[in-house]
Specification:
By secondary structure, the protein is an alpha+beta fold. It has 13 helices and ten strands. Helices cover 47% and strands 12% of the residues.
Length: 445
């Protein structure tokens, strides 16, 4: 029998990778840190830089987006599946050699692997969600006995990445100011992307989220400013008729100055009592308008927008208002978003890390194992739940017919099982007790 066909994969060989270059230290360019004040023009400028593939300002903007509570919660929920789902290292085949290579890779790429850690994957997934792609770098470390070369993967800072349109390649600044091209799968660099051309313009959450953040920030600022008007009444005083407010020099008269001091005390609540001149009046001005509802509606609308951008769903509808999502709820609403991230991570780790590791250590990548996420099948779970419900209903019907004294025969069971969509069980055969012949003595125990 011919062997089972396999999906086409590019075979990597050890000669493709210059180990001396791969083991050389590589560090990103050091950047100063500090707080940034974002104007609407600066936000739009960072969004335009994202579209052009220059990631320095977009990376700073992505950090600032997480200062907003709704955008922060949506971002964390987006990363939850990759953090919570278990992983398995799957051998390329069932041969002894493939199993042995998988076992060697378990310590690096398995669920507790030190070569690809959960912390690194979380950062990669965050960049993938915000910017539409992520970049990782491999550090190679030969063992002291020379038997193997281990690889440790880390997330490269997105702010150091840019698209060189002239050379048609990604590149990055490194420590010392050198500019290095980023080539996926060359043993050093790994690019995680769900699109071939310009992924930073396709599914980058920062593109729509940038102005959502701006709208929420301005709405909250205006709402807070309006709270002073609605929450603090203004005290207005009226002097008695005939009492002058100003003297000939234009200064307040002693009566007016004393009355103003009284108004200040009343407004500040520092002096709960006071004496006003005869004929004077104190009036409270309050704002009874409903303009605050405009800001309430705007902020709530942008809350929903933040969740739709990162999760592809309205959290309030999916969870009844709860901000926390379970894996089942995520998969029940928009599992395509979750699976899209996981498949990109799986593909990038395989072609950018595991295959070069296998080629360097074993000569080629033909038997490179796969690191896969164990994703629950929501459709299969729903089917099994429906089958269980049908069996329960069938058993209840059979029990009810027997309790009512009906004769439940095999033919009736077959027909009833067909109605309920289940496989008909077989009735147990009971051995009949033989009848003793006439006149035979009764047996005693």
């Amino acid at each position: 029998m011919p062997s089972k066909s396999k999906a086409a994969r590019k075979v990597r060989y050890s000669g493709e990778f210059a180990l001396a270059q791969l083991t050389a230290a590589l560090a990103p360019l050091r950047q100063s840190t500090g707080a940034y004040a974002w104007t609407l023009e600066a936000i739009r400028g960072a969004r335009d830089a994202q579209m052009a593939g220059n990631m320095r300002e977009p990376a700073k903007l992505a950090e600032s987006l997480r200062t907003d509570d709704e955008l922060f919660a949506a971002y964390v929920n987006r990363l939850a599946p990759a953090r919570g789902l278990p992983v398995r290292l799957e051998a390329a085949s069932d041969t002894t050699r493939a199993q042995a290579i998988r076992d060697e890779g378990e310590g690096l790429f398995g669920k507790r692997g030190v070569g690809v850690t959960q912390d690194v994957v979380a950062d990669l997934n965050g960049d993938l969600a915000n910017h539409g792609f992520a970049v990782g770098v491999n550090d190679w470390a030969p063992r002291e006995d020379g038997s193997r070369v281990d690889v440790l993967h880390r997330c490269w800072p997105m702010g150091e990445v840019r698209w060189n349109a002239h050379e048609r390649t990604l590149e990055t600044y490194t420590e010392g100011g050198a500019i290095v091209p980023i080539t996926h799968g060359d043993g050093r660099w790994v690019v995680y992307s769900g699109h071939e051309l310009h992924p930073w313009t396709k599914e980058a959450a920062i593109l729509p989220a940038a102005l959502v953040w701006a709208a929420r920030a301005y709405a909250n600022r205006a709402w807070s400013s309006g709270a002073n008007t609605h929450g603090n009444a203004k005290v207005i005083g009226t002097m008695p008729e005939g009492v002058a407010l100003q003297d000939d020099a234009g200064a307040l008269t002693s009566e007016a100055a004393a009355f103003i001091a009284l108004l200040r005390d009343v407004a500040s609540l520092d002096a709960p009592v006071g004496i006003k001149p005869f004929g004077a009046a104190l009036d409270y001005l309050t704002d009874n308008g409903q303009a605050w509802q405009i800001f309430d509606d705007l902020v709530k609308a942008k809350d929903r927008a933040a969740n739709r951008i990162y999760l592809g769903q309205d959290v309030a509808k999916a969870t009844g208002g709860s901000q926390r999502l379970s894996v089942e709820q995520l998969f029940g609403v928009r599992n395509d978003v979750v699976e899209g991230d996981l498949r990109v991570l799986e593909r990038g780790i395989l072609t950018g890390i595991i295959e070069p590791w296998a080629a360097v250590n074993f000569g080629d990548s033909l038997l490179a194992p796969r690191r896969i996420y164990l994703v629950p099948d929501a459709d299969e779970d729903a089917r099994r739940a429906a089958v269980a419900t049908q069996h329960e209903a069938f058993n209840r019907a059979v029990a009810a017919y027997r309790d009512n004294g009906f004769d439940v025969t095999q033919a009736y069971l077959d027909a009833l099982a067909e109605d309920y969509g289940v496989t008909a069980p077989r009735l147990a055969v009971t051995a009949a007790t033989p009848t003793p012949p006439a006149g035979a003595p009764a047996t005693t125990g």
